[in-house]
Design a protein that fits this description.
heterodimer, A: mainly alpha, 3 domains, 21 helices, globular, B: alpha/beta, Rossmann fold, five-stranded parallel sheet, elongated
């Protein structure tokens, strides 16, 4: 089911009406049914993956709770401390084995559908290096990845790890757990919700609230505007330039990189706004994925404000366990002795960051380009971490005030340029395409003779005015949001002005969003 | 519950205000339609006098000039084609015009993909263009029965865009595109489309034609057109219009040709494929006869209409029966390559 169609809006309306018409106790069943219908609309066979994943995690989490219960009983049955410790260790080891087996099974499915072709190609490349004859390896096209598999795999494994770490009890009802995993507003491209945050809201009883309805609708319209008027309008320009980067001027390529930054933000945050807005109407607050990311002052801060739930997942379930592991702590001690206090202190973080960014790259796509993209992000974060004392010295030498506006603006601009250049790298195509893109950008850089030497030639007369208007609007909204919600701001205005804004927004959406052909429906992050 | 009622009332009020704001533009659209398709007034003027019809999609809109046909065959022809017109749309408009006029001949354009389209049209535009030629309840009925849920937003956009264009155009002195020659024909200047040689040069030809799968619905409406024509004594000529020779190496060409010939034999009418004409180069020139890869320029349309008139005059039985046509695209391409080896 394409999100940018009237049939999808009809689907949302049906869900909304049913949700508030049925007895409040059964509201979650409406959501489960809607999630199944939504997921089935992408293909019936894909539901098998999500059912298998959720069943594995559900059974495993229930089993963990049973092990904990048995452990408590066994510990109570023995008297001395040593025996208690031995019993605990025995049960913990069993639980750990169960966790590892489940994670292997769940991530095994993810690897099989998403990474098997990539891995197979690497094996084939190795084979050709070992001079194996061509055709030695039969052709392998891989499996078709079900939509949202990366997102629901991470969400469900996060739940399993939380249960393992006894953050909360496992869910007893499989249908309820299935709803948590397959909840349709999050299934295509997140956010990666946490069970303790979402489950209470999913299963609570919600009464219709006009205020939430109004705010939710406003957010949805804003999301549709960003997606259809900005992201989909930029898309054909970038397809052309990325496919033909060798013949484009350097400034065109530079401009395309910045356009890509705008496009991916409008696309991803537009999707979030559409679905978070809808959830708001349902009385459910989903985890936020963006916090004005292009106003970040460093790459590390940017990643705390862009795709927040993915970053938080990696932080909680990978970064901390690695940074706090015995190996990392021992490495830190060794590094302190050898390289000094500063490097030693940061060693656990560096070890964890290397692995986190390798996996973040791989999560985004099974290609060397994405691995390189992850590596570049990690490199800049580690680099700034290691050279922080040097920056501080330089700042004091140059008499730069940390609180000055100019310095703040410089940092924001520098970070925006940096993340834009990193971001565009895997989007061009393969690793060599990414390198070639930047090579062409430098090689073909020349003094512009006209505006179309900088901007890609327009495909429609309305394209650049529309984009300029919407980017200015997005910027203004971000600036206002720094202090307060734009919707609160609008809410205080006179009704004529408020409704004027709403009418304009819907009119712009239908007129300017409707003019973009052939790109509607697809969201960029759905491919990850 | 009160909150729910408030929401419903406000949504209804919002929709009403929105409809009021949009209504002037929609009214202008409903009155004027789109410029290139606005032939209703002339159709009204000619009512009861038209005896020759051209019907098809965009290839036909820009492919046949009624004034040329009138001079060639001493008839009173009219081009009722419109862009992206589906088979069902053709049946609807042919029936409507033929009921008001003593039509004796119908040229039905089957150019390349028009009979293969899965959906009624590639976009909503075809259906809306057809609806512009219908009136009152007929128009409302057609819209309600032919517009899918997901076509409502794009059709709203089309209506608003066309209406706005019409309003803005009323302030401007000269139209900015096309030349109206009358009787449903809009002329286009020759242009060289950069895409024209791409497919040819790849040499992606199949060794044997594959049978094409014509959607059932298209066959049903073709049958209805044929039945209607038979009942009303209308002679039908099936035709595929001219394309720049460089682009017609499309792999299913021969499969489609076989389907066209089979249909022509089934209904006992001649089928002409301009691209298979052995001396096509004498009539068409890649530089001047086309304005893009799929449509003829005015110069190409003149040649095409004259050719068609000559075939009708000489009662040519068409492809497969007449020696002036190649029997297949494979033969035509081989002959072309033999003449211009640098193209292969």
């Amino acid at each position: 089911m394409s999100v940018l169609t009237l049939s999808f809006i009809c689907f949302l309306l049906t869900v909304l009406v049913l949700y508030y018409v049925v007895p409040k106790k059964t509201q979650w069943i409406v959501l489960l049914a809607a999630s199944c219908v939504f997921y089935l609309s992408f293909g019936a066979k894909y539901i098998l993956y999500i059912l298998t994943d959720s069943l594995l995690i559900y059974v495993s989490a229930r089993q963990m709770n049973k092990i904990d219960e048995k452990q408590r009983q066994a510990v109570r049955a023995v008297e001395d401390r040593a025996s208690k410790k031995a019993v605990k260790a025995q049960f913990q080891s069993k639980k750990k084995r169960l966790l590892i087996c489940t994670l292997i099974a769940v991530f095994g499915i993810l690897v099989a559908v998403k990474y098997s072709v990539f891995l197979y190609r690497q094996i084939c490349s190795l084979g050709s290096l070992l001079l194996l004859p061509p055709g030695f390896f039969p052709e392998y096209r891989g499996l078709v990845a079900p939509i949202g598999i990366s997102f629901y795999t991470f969400q469900s494994t996060g739940y399993l790890l939380d249960v393992y770490w006894k953050k909360y009890e496992s869910e007893k009802n499989y249908a309820r757990f299935l709803l948590f995993v397959s909840f349709f507003p999050q299934i295509i491209q997140g956010p990666i919700n946490r069970f303790d945050h979402l489950s209470d809201q999913l299963f609570a009883q919600h009464a219709f609230d006009y205020h939430r309805f109004s705010y939710g609708c406003q957010r949805m319209v804003w999301g549709f505007l960003k997606k259809t008027v900005v992201a989909d309008r930029i898309s054909p320009y970038l397809s052309d330039i990325f496919a033909n980067y060798t013949n484009s001027s350097g400034l065109n390529l530079l401009c395309a990189a910045f356009m890509y930054s705008v496009q991916i933000y409008a696309d991803f945050s537009g999707y979030m706004d559409i679905f978070c807005g809808f959830c708001e109407i349902l009385g459910i607050d989903m985890a936020e994925n963006f916090e004005r990311p292009y106003f970040s002052k460093s790459v590390a801060e940017y990643w705390r404000r862009w795709h927040i739930t993915l970053g938080a997942w990696f932080k909680d379930y990978l970064y901390y366990p690695i940074a706090l592991s015995r190996f990392a702590q021992n490495s830190s001690k060794r590094a302190k002795k050898r390289f000094g206090q500063h490097i030693g202190k940061n060693t656990p973080a560096i070890i964890a960051l290397v692995l986190v960014w390798f996996l973040t790259g791989l999560w985004h796509g099974a290609s060397w380009a994405y691995i390189a993209w992850g590596g570049l992000n990690g490199f800049f974060i580690i680099f700034s971490m290691l050279f922080e004392p040097l920056y501080d010295k330089a700042k004091s030498a140059l008499h730069i005030r940390e609180s000055s506006r100019m310095w703040h603006a410089f940092q924001v601009l520098r970070t925006f340029c940096l993340v834009t250049m990193i971001k565009v790298f895997p989007e061009v195509g393969t690793f060599s395409d990414g390198v070639g893109f930047f090579g062409s950008m430098i090689r073909n850089m020349r003094i512009p003779t006209g505006v179309w030497d900088i901007l890609p030639a327009p495909k429609g007369s309305l394209d650049y005015p529309c984009l300029a208007l919407m980017v200015a609007l997005m910027f203004t909204v971000s600036v206002i949001q720094r202090k307060r919600s734009v919707r609160d701001y609008l809410h205080e205005k006179p009704v004529v002005l408020r409704w004027g804004v709403y009418l304009c927004a819907v009119l712009i959406l239908l007129l300017l969003g409707g003019s973009v052909e052939g790109t509607g429906g697809g969201f960029m992050y759905a491919q990850f | 519950m009160r909150s729910f009622k408030t929401a419903l009332c406000k949504v209804a009020l919002f929709t009403l205000i929105f409809a009021l704001i949009c209504s002037p533009v929609v009214c202008v659209y409903l009155k004027n339609g789109s410029e290139n398709n606005n032939i209703n007034a002339q159709l009204e003027e000619e009512k009861g006098k038209i005896d020759f019809l051209f019907c098809g999609a965009s290839q036909s809109v820009w492919g046949f000039i009624p004034l040329v046909m009138d001079a060639e065959l001493a008839c009173n022809s009219f081009n009722i084609s419109s862009g992206l017109l589906s088979m069902e749309g053709r049946y609807t408009i042919i029936r409507k015009v033929a009921q008001d006029n003593p039509v004796k001949n119908l040229v039905l354009d089957l150019s390349y993909n028009s009979i293969l389209r899965e959906d009624k049209t590639d976009s909503v535009e075809g259906e809306l263009l057809l609806e512009e030629r219908l009136h009152g309840m007929e128009r409302i009925r057609y819209y309600c029965t032919h517009t899918k849920v997901d076509e409502i937003f794009p059709s709203f956009y089309y209506v608003m865009r066309t209406g706005m264009y019409s309003i803005l155009h009323s302030f401007s002195a000269k139209p900015d595109r096309g030349m109206y020659f009358g009787k449903g024909y809009w002329g286009e200047k020759a242009a060289i489309d950069q895409r024209r040689d791409v497919r040819w040069k790849t040499g992606d030809r199949q060794s044997a034609p594959e049978p094409v799968d014509i959607p059932e619905e298209n066959l049903v409406y073709l049958e209805k057109i044929m039945q209607f024509c038979k009942e009303n004594g209308i002679r039908v000529y099936l035709i595929t219009t001219a394309y720049p020779t460089g682009v017609i190496s499309w792999s299913d060409r021969d499969g489609l040709l076989q389907a066209h010939v089979k249909l022509a034999r089934q209904y006992g009418c001649p089928f002409y494929d301009v691209n298979l004409l052995r001396d096509k180069d004498k009539w068409f020139d890649d530089e001047t006869s086309y304005y893009d890869v799929e449509h003829t320029s005015t110069q190409g349309a003149v040649a095409q209409t004259k050719l068609l008139a000559s075939w009708i005059r000489s009662a040519s039985p068409g492809v497969g029966e007449d020696a002036q046509f190649y029997d297949s695209y494979a033969d035509m391409i081989d002959a072309y390559l033999a003449r211009s080896p640098e193209k292969s």
